[in-house]
Amino acid sequence: MRFADVLSRRPVVLDGGLSNQLEAAGHDLGDALWSARLLADEPGAIEAAHRAYYRAGAEVAITASYQATYEGFARHGIDARRTTELLRLSVELARAAGSGLGREVWVAASVGPYGAMLADGSEYRGRYGLTVDELERFHRPRLETLAAAEPDVLALETVPDTDEARALLRAVRGLGVPAWLSYSVAGARTRAGQPLDEAFALAADVDEVIAVGVNCCDPRDVDAAVALSARVTGKPVVVYPNSGETWDAGARSWRGPARFAAGQVAGWRAAGARLVGGCCRVGPAVIAQVAAELASPGRPTG
C-alpha cells in the first residue's frame, strides 16, 4: 500500500533517535559526520539500529542520511561517486532491516538541513547567510540521489527557518517521491524566529508534501504546533520531538531532564497527528509505548 494511502486511514508509528541507539550499542559518533560515518565504516550497525525500532513497534525507519551530504563526505576524502553509493545504501539498510517482520513497514529518507552538514549546531539557529537559490542548489543533488533509491517518503526534517523550507519545497518538485516537512521550533516560532503559522503555510499547496509538522523540539512545544499545522495546511501532521533535553553544541552533549512521555500521544493524535515518533534521545522502549498508545482502540482518532 502507498504510504500516503496509509496516512489517510490511520496513524503511523515512526522510529526514535538513530544516534542514541547507535551510541547505546557502543559506537562513537563524536566526529562531524555523526551517524553518517557508519554508512561507510560499519553499515551493519545501522541496520541493527533500524531493526531494534521495528521490533519495538515502529512502522517507519528514518535513514542515516541526515548528516550525509556530498560536501560533508568530501571533507573526509570521500568522492561524489562513493557518496552516491552511501546515500543509496542508507535506504537499502532501512529496507533490509524491515524484511522478515511479517508486517508492512516503510522507509523515510532523511534530508537534514544545511546546518547539519556544518556540524556546529546551526541547524538549531538557521539563517546561514545563504539565499534560497543557494540552499536549493545544496539540497537538490542529495534529494535526487535519495529519490532514485526509492524510499517510501522523503523526510525533510529539523528545518530551522522558512528560507530553507522554501528551498527544500522547490527541490522536491518532480522527484516522484512524496515528502513530509518538519520544522525544529521553539514555542510558536521556528528556531530562526519566524511565526510558525507562516512556516507551515508554505507547504499547504505543495502536492508532493503529504504531512507537515515538527521534530527535534521540546515535547512541551508539540501540542500547539500539531493543532496549528492541521488548521493551516489541512494535511496530516507529523510529530517526533526529542526527549526534552537540550543539545549543547560546544560540549556535543545533551543537558537537562527528559520530558517525553508516551501519555502525551493521545492528545497529539486527537489534534491531527498521523505520524508520531521520537527524535534524539528517544529510544526503542519509548517507541514501544508510543505504538501501544496509537494502537489503543479507545483513543480518539483525530
UniProtKB/TrEMBL annotation:
Annotated Hcy-binding domain residues: 1-294
Q: Name one GO biological process term.
A: S-methylmethionine cycle
- Give EC number(s), comma-separated: 2.1.1.10
Q: Which SUPFAM superfamilies match?
A: Homocysteine S-methyltransferase
Q: Which Gene3D superfamilies match?
A: Homocysteine-binding-like domain
- Record keywords, A-Z: Metal-binding, Methyltransferase, Transferase, Zinc
Is Amino-acid biosynthesis found in the keyword set?
Answer: no
Put simply, this protein is called Homocysteine S-methyltransferase
Q: Which organism is it from?
A: Streptomyces alboniger
